[in-house]
Amino acid sequence: MGRITEDLIRRNAEHNDCVIFSLEELSLHQQEIERLEHIDKWCKDLKILYLQNNLIAKIENVSKLKKLEYLNLALNNIERIENLEGCECLTKLDLTVNFIGELSSIKTLIHNIHLKELFLMGNPCADFDGYRQFVVVTLQQLKWLDGREIERSERIQALQNYTAVEQQIREQEKAYCLRRAREKEEAERKLEEEQGSGDKKESSPGFDGCRYSDTYAFCPSATENKNHLQAPETQGDPSSKETDESEDDLAFWNKPSLFTPESRLETLRHMEKQRKAQEKLSENKKKVKPPRILVTEDGKALNVNEAKLDFSVKDDEKHKQIILDLAVYRYMDTSLIEVDVQPTYVRVMVKGKPFQLALSVEVQPDRSSAKRSQTTGHLLICMPKVGEMITGGQRTPMSMKTTLDSNRKQTNPRRKQIERLEVDPSKHSCPDVSTIVQEKKHKPKRMESQPPIVPSEEDLDFDDNPEVPPLI
Questions:
Q1: 93 in Cβ contact with 117 (< 8 Å)
Q2: Is-contact 51 28, C-beta < 8 A?
Q3: Which of the four pLDDT bands, split at 50, 70 and 90, describes residue 374?
Q4: Which helix (H) or strand (E) holds 70?
Q5: φ and ψ at residue 342, rounded to 5 degrees
Q6: At what angle do helices 261-285 and 162-199 cross, to 10 degrees?
Q7: Which residue from 76, 92, 184, 451 has the least number of CB within 10 angstroms?
Q8: Residue 169: CB atoms within 10 Å
Q9: In this structure, how many other beta carbons lie within 10 angstroms of the beta carbon of residue 172?
Q10: In DSSP terms, which residues pair with 396 in a beta bridge?
Q11: Which strand (E) or helix (H) includes residue 285?
Q12: Which residues contact 242 (CB under 8 A, 6 or more apart)?
């Protein structure tokens, strides 16, 4: 069951920057809180306090909240109205669906002169004959009761019949208190029986069908046969055990129960027990996942997206590269991302989860780049293809055919000016083999053109085959 702690209040004070001393509104509903404590010391400026749907059995430790205007204690285990005299500014009190049977305890609210709204519906006292008339007369400052406005004529009529109504309320209160005392005794007896049966559980039948008590500590022979006696217990069918538990759970929910704080606590304990049993069962069934296989034994890279990220792959023919756009989470720190580019695949680790993509062509890892968008958080990986080289912002094929073609064009009288490869030494770590053969310098086009070469008479039979490379 839960308790009111400083950490719990701070977690529910995010709207106040987790500062609790100046907190004016606090919501602690559905926290299974059993006792109302510490709030009057830590949050003295509270104006609104939500504590509905908990297990609070007594109103206490709120008398120092001088600024409290609205207190919601609906769906709790409260049986008496008390300790609210110090809440001087209290204007609304919600006690819907509790266990208040002492209707005369509302007289403690007479000193709360600013109280305008009161909710008592769903309590045993709301079923008393003359309940509304008694409350209307007792609390003259009230304007609304159980969501219904109190008319002036209703108050006058209640005052006229107050003597008879008060006598009826006292008799009904007395009968309720006697019945409530019997219910408490029955609940205590039942709880003692359950605890006793839990402490004195009989052992399961042995191999011969008989039941054995724990006497092996005093009997040497029993100590020797301890493992033998427990063998049938360990060989039990787990499915039969689950069936028994489900039958017990069904019997619990089908069993009739009274509307009392004890029955409500019993229900919550049963639900907590079922939850723990389910968690234990899920832990036993949980299997350790085998490590993710990224590369097979024969060296083949697999496509893996364990991080479950959206991605797109683009083959940029203009710049001769492959572009991978990976939709990484926008607010994830870049230190949690690792990129590894290999010739045949690219791998990205996102918070320890792998994303791997096998590439259709071979790329150059040393010339690849990875950038991340500051707007969307996407990761952009550019991977140049093998056989391509970077030349001043352009990529041209690295082959010796370029050199041969340039030499052949020198013999052509109508040759064109050759475009030289401009290599930036700072961008390359390996020598450029395309510049080993030195080109001949050409004169500018503005100079006079050379006369055409006329073959001599000795070379009349010469046949210029363009497929034969020239001699160097």
A1: yes
A2: yes
A3: confident
A4: strand 70-72
A5: -115, 165
A6: 30
A7: 451
A8: 22
A9: 19
A10: 389
A11: helix 261-285
A12: none
One-letter amino acid at 126 equals: A
At residue 176, the 3 state secondary structure works out as: helix
Alpha-carbon span 467 to 465, nearest angstrom:
5
Asked if residues 33 and 4 have their Cβ atoms less than 8 Å apart, the reply is: yes
Contacts (Cβ under 8 Å, ≥6 apart) of 222: 215, 216, 229
Helix (H) or strand (E) holding 281: helix 261-285
**Pairing label, strands 144-145, 148-149:** antiparallel
d(Cα 454, Cα 65) in Å, to the nearest integer?
115
Which of 21, 28, 29, 18 lies closest to 46 in space, CA to CA? 21
- Mean model confidence pLDDT for the chain: 78
- pLDDT of 217 reads 37
Separation of alpha carbons 118 and 135, rounded Å: 10
Per-residue pLDDT at 308 exceeds 70: yes
DSSP letters of 312-351? EEEEETTTTEEEEEE---TTS-GGGEEEEE-SSEEEEEET
> For helices 162-199 and 152-160, what crossing angle results, to 10°?
90
The predicted structure's pLDDT at residue 274: 83
Sequence-ordered list of residues with C-beta below 8 angstroms from that of 288, at least 6 positions apart, any chain: none
CA distance 406 to 396: 15
Residue 126 CB partners (closer than 8 Å, separation 6+): 120, 146
